[in-house]
Automatic annotation (TrEMBL):
UniProt KW Cell division keyword: no
Name of this chain's protein: HIG1 domain-containing protein
Membrane-crossing segments per the record: 6-25, 46-62
InterPro entries: Hypoxia_induced_domain (IPR007667)
Organism from which the protein derives: Pseudophaeobacter arcticus
């Protein structure tokens, strides 16, 4: 639980959730915010998802190699 890689992975997942909620909220409300930030939020979500998956894969790989 105190593994730094695990903590980073959890934080990356939390960042994905926050950006996803912001994007869904903006999409639901529509208007100027959605027009201005919809694509930026989607790109940011994809970046955070990539980071989260990479961290999770690294964590699982290192745990399997006896890295912990």
């Amino acid at each position: 639980m105190g593994d730094p890689l695990y903590i980073l992975a959890v934080l990356a997942i939390a960042a994905v959730v926050v950006v996803l909620i912001l994007g869904l909220g903006g999409f639901g409300k529509g208007g100027a915010f959605n027009q201005k930030y919809a694509n930026k939020l989607m790109r940011l979500r994809l970046l955070f998802q990539f980071i989260a998956v990479a961290l999770l894969v690294a964590y699982v790989y290192l745990r399997g190699q006896g890295g912990q």
